[in-house]
What does this fold into?
Amino acid sequence: MGGRAEVKHCLFILSLFFCYATSAKTIHVGSSHPYKTVTAGLEAALAGDTVLVDAGHYKEKNLVINKRIFLIGINYPVLDGEKKYEIISIMADAVVVDGFKIIGSGISSLQDLSGIKIYDSKKVIVKNNILEDTFFGIYTQNGVDCTIENNRLISSSKGEQQNGNGIHCWKSEGMRIIGNQVTGHRDGIYLEFVTNSIIWRNTSIKNVRYGLHFMFSNDDTYVANVFSNNGSGVSVMFSQRIKMLSNYFEENWGDAAYGILLKEISDGYMEGNHFRKNTSAIYMEGANRILMKRNTFENNGWALKIQASCMDVVLEQNNFVGNTFDVGTNGSLVLNRFTNNYWDKYEGYDLDKDKIGDIPYRPVSMFSMIVEKYPTAMILFRTFITALLDKTEKILPSLTPENLKDTAPLMKKAF
Amino acid sequence: MTKIIKYVIADILRNRMVLVYTLFLLASSFTVFSLEDNSSKGLLSLLNIILIVVPLVSLIFSTIYVYNSAEFVELLVSQPLKRKSIWLSLFSGLAASLSIAFLIGAGIPLLIYQANMIGFTMIMVGIMLSIIFVSIALLATVNTRDKAKGIGVAVMLWLYFSLLFDGFVLFLLFQFADYPLEKPMIAVSALNPIDLSRILILLQLDVSAMMGYTGAVFKDFFGTSTGLIFSVTILFLWIALPVWFSTRQFNTKDL
Amino acid sequence: MIIATNISKQFGKLKALDHVSTTCSKGECIALIGPNGSGKTTFIKSILGMVVPDSGTIEFKGKNIRNQWQYRDEIGYMPQIGRYPDNMTIGQVLDMMTDIRNKKTALDDDLIQAFSLHNLLDKRMRTLSGGTRQKISAALAFLFDPAVLILDEPTAGLDPVSSELLKEKIIAEKEKGKLVLITSHVLSELDDLVTRIIYMQDGKLLFQKSIEDLKQDTGENKLSKAIAWVMTNE
It folds into this structure.
């Protein structure tokens, strides 16, 4: 009895496998094929089928993919949302959308209309697409182990209300966001409640608000991304155990613009990042247990603005070069540690030749404290009188925090 | 008039002080650029030279030169020459010589090490400051008969423009911290050519920091073409007005 | 040629010129004399436009000189102390003045020859003695053959030989019908030179007389004695 049941079981599996193997067919969509529209092609397809779409201009309102389908465009067929619709809605696991040009989604802040939206699905792959003037670009909600790769997202609309985020993930995990380019959106990449994900080699430039924005997203890793010329830089809030490696934060200009804003962050690790020409390269507020190593701060207005609410932030072996101000702070309480950094403004000496300066470096200048309090005083920067003030302060510290100092500054660049 | 300018320039260029000044600029520019490992620090040192040394030398040298050529000026006045052209020639000669000295002393190193917008701005600003302070020196000398007093006035003027004025502005900033001062500050900066020049260079040199909220107000103003035209116009006024006043006074001055 | 009417000039509290009026014509050689600080130089400078009078007018060939400059083309001026740009050579100074004057007619280089200045053309001004500078000033005053010569203490600082040479030149020019104005307080050397005396004191023009009248009135032959006579008797 038991044996027969086993055979039956085996046969069932085998037939299932057979059935799958034979039924996985390819459906062509295009003016020269039986299926003229993508909608028709999708309807005809069964789970596991491939739908190949020829180049052309398709106005198909909302395409819903609720089967496991490989939707592949040949020479970037255009899917046009006519500024009214969400263009592709993915509602099944392991769907692949590859090689489309997706333009003009509708704009609705109520529904978050997107170019491509993934609803509650696993292992979806969205790659090699071009998205132009979509409200939201690629949107994931409750996605698991999805891949968003090599897409190009460009939005030309102005103003935050008319503009959604480029890559937007909400309540997702195990996401892989790789090699995308996002320009002109509200936030280039937006993550909220996203965990255990990797964000790698993306370029997020000239977005209206943040190049990268994430909140309540723990255990994520950011590697080799470029965030430049965004309205307010990069904002990171209420997240834990974040790793940021070898990213570029460049030319984020404005009073509220930061290379990166770290707010209520704990147990972060940052290494090998480049901060160049930002008004404030890093702004830290309520950050705890952050280790920053071997980062480069170059030609920023402020390399580091560290509020008194930060604790156990450690900076070691970073290079500070050509910054207008190295460190700015708002209070005299310092619970952070600076050690073995290279500061180009260091004027100390190294008599014992151990390549470490013999006197500590104080990265907070008198004038930066003044500017912190009276921003307008910036107009007097680099005047004779402010230089005198700085020199006096160096000799007799009174305003600048006594223990904010690098006790072992390097004489040569750290790397 | 060009004839007199020619002779004034020829005379000044033979003056050892101008040569020393040129060599000083040349030496310090090359030193700051070759000693510092990154050129931005060199630029900062050079900025201080431009903002402090150039006005000082222009003022003092012009003052002393005008006093020393009092008899020569007298001789020229007794000739069939317009007083206006004598005075303007003196101004042009001084302005041209000090500009040339600056151009050689600081301009060449800048062109070698910083052939970009920053370097270009610095050269332009340096030349403008040279000329402005020649102009101010002429106004000071035409009003003061005594040489020692005249040089004293020149030193005081330099102290005022490079230190006291900014101290005063800082004081105002602290006193009126609760008021929006950004726009008034733009107006105040027009009252001091050194400040105006410094801001023009800062917008190139510290652009990141100048983009902060207050800085953005300055950048939004000075960084636009309107602002640039405004600044350059003001700088030209700083040349033209003292020259104009001093020429008027020289016209009726008893020699 | 030159008519001064009621010119006054005040330097602070000092009245340098007090309603001075006089007329100078062609062919005259007028000596302005008086003690130090009597206003002689101020008067000369007023004519040259170097000092602007507070009131009164000066006419040169019938035209008010106020704010004019072209008329100075016809004046050769030798200042009391001639100073020139330190770094220029004598040759350069001569070239420069020639250049400025831009005279079409031939230059009168009698004095340059007489003072042997042509041998010193490469000397820098800074290196010259006061006397040599005076010679240059004199040479320059005569160089452009002007109709009017104004000489402020011309012989002060000159050696006797040069002084004599200069006097001869002045007489020669006077003979040609030029107007010569000389200030001096060394009366002895003016004796055979001047045709008229203007005596000034405290900014006032005390008296002016032709040399003949003066000698006749005073019965003195020597100028110094004649002046002394006037001072005691008038």
Observations:
- The mean pLDDT of chain C is 86.
- Residues 174 and 217 of chain C are 25 Å apart (CA to CA).
- The longest strand of chain C covers residues 14-24.
- Residues 2-233 of chain C form a domain with the Rossmann fold fold (CATH 3.40.50.300).
